[in-house]
Amino acid sequence: MPLYKLPRGTLDILPAEQVYWEYVKHKAIALCQLYGYQRLDTPAFEDFNLFARSMGEGTDIVDKEMYTLEDKSGKKMSLRPEGTAPICRAYLEHGLYNLPQPVRLYYFATVFRYERPQAGRYRQHYQFGFEAIGDADPALDAEIISMTWHFCLSLGLKGLCLQLNSIGCKVCRPHYLENLKRHYSACLTQLCPDCKARLIRNPLRLLDCKKKSCQEAIETAPKSINYLCQECKAHFESIQRYLELLGIPFKVSHRLVRGLDYYTRTVFEIQSPGEGIQNALGGGGRYDELIEELGGKSTAAVGFAAGMERIILNLKRQNVSIPALPRPSIFIAYLGDEAKAEAIKLAFKLRQAGIAAITAMGGRSLKAQLRQANTFGTSYSVIIGEDEVKSQTVALRNMTTKEQKTIPSTKLEELFRRD
Ligand code: AMP
């Protein structure tokens, strides 16, 4: 019996699963290259206050879900619970505001949240995200949203729904929140205990409660887009025009808010068909006040993040066909010590010539070695025995037809280079 188990809410990504991960990463990188976004990697942990300040005390993530510890010097550090704040920290720290704006960046990041694990919800998950920092132009919101759409389509996902909303800015949102609170206070008895607490700390989040008891209050709640100031209204209309221009279908959803405090104006989410949390593939929005909150000058920005596990789950659900990963071309089997030395030498030579080869190990029977070749899925095996060592030849076996022929070992490189 193994002594240790996988931590709850985490995943081992086994070799058979890697084909999906490689596929999604490859599509993500290709997308960012198409749109001119550059990669920025940040560490897995940061100062606790970076997250507390950016996401806001009172949010579930800061209050309940962060993995925080004191390091040996007594500093409070947190495992990254999201990717945007670290990117903004790096933008400020490395003076990226001196570059021509907007700066367009992307990242892959492990994200840690102490949540209740279920299908599609983990305590460690992996996000792919992109951010455009340094411009308030609604065309930039449209660019980020179109990238999101393009990304999901390029993966082969179908039946997607893009939801869009505007939650206003610091000028118009307080008035909206007052009205929202008034509405909810009048139906307090219907609300679930979580929503009762949210009413004081984070009233926007009342709108995305999934509990049955809260649905009526959500349906009748005031809508943020009816409280937007002139600038926010114009911004929101402009994004919609750009999306129409690009032929990207979207649905304005009054219930759409995001879990983090830093969003301003635009919020959007992309969902796959069906029920449940697994359908929220990714989301994003504008965060025009975040950089200033972190000590920089007032700097507008917009971004998006998707959960890789959720995307993979939906690729499987929709039976999207994924190209296989490259496999070694040749498996090298041997019989006896002299042949083993030849096999090792041959494999090294082939790899140096750029031909992927894998050798047997130990002293297993030829049958067992060929069985292993089958599990690797190599098209050919090379078999070296005493006779082949003497004659400087190899037996080349086609693993599909089982045909076998003897060829000089020097021919092998030439044969597979052409293959
Ligand atoms: P968020 O940072 O909450 O906006 O999340 C962005 C995306 O990451 C979501 O749309 C999900 O696809 C994914 N995600 C968020 N939390 C989790 C989690 N606990 N486990 C797996 N994926 C997650």
Key structural traits:
419 residues, alpha+beta, 2 domains, 5-stranded mixed sheet, 16 strands, binds adenosine monophosphate
Structural overview:
By secondary structure, this protein is an alpha+beta fold. The chain folds into 2 domains: 15-172 and 228-317, BirA Bifunctional Protein, domain 2 (2-Layer Sandwich), CATH 3.30.930; 330-418, Anticodon-binding domain (Rossmann fold), CATH 3.40.50.800. It is 38% helix and 21% strand. It is built from 15 helices and 16 strands. It has helices at 18-35, 48-55, 60-65, 84-93, 138-154, 173-186, 193-201, 215-219, 230-246, 290-293, 308-317, 337-352, 366-376, 386-391, 411-418; strands at residues 38-39, 45-47, 68-70, 76-79, 103-112, 124-133, 161-166, 251-252, 264-271, 280-286, 301-307, 330-334, 357-359, 380-384, 393-398, 404-408. Strands 1-5-6-11-10-9-7-8 form an 8-stranded mixed β-sheet, with helices on both faces. A hairpin with an 8-residue loop joins β9 and β10 (280-286). α1 packs antiparallel against α5 (138-154) and α5 (138-154) packs parallel to α9. The chain is elongated and about 90 Å long. The two termini are 45 Å apart. The chain binds adenosine monophosphate (AMP). Adenosine monophosphate binds at residues 82, 113, 115, 120-122, 125, 127, 259, 280-283, 305-307, 309-310.
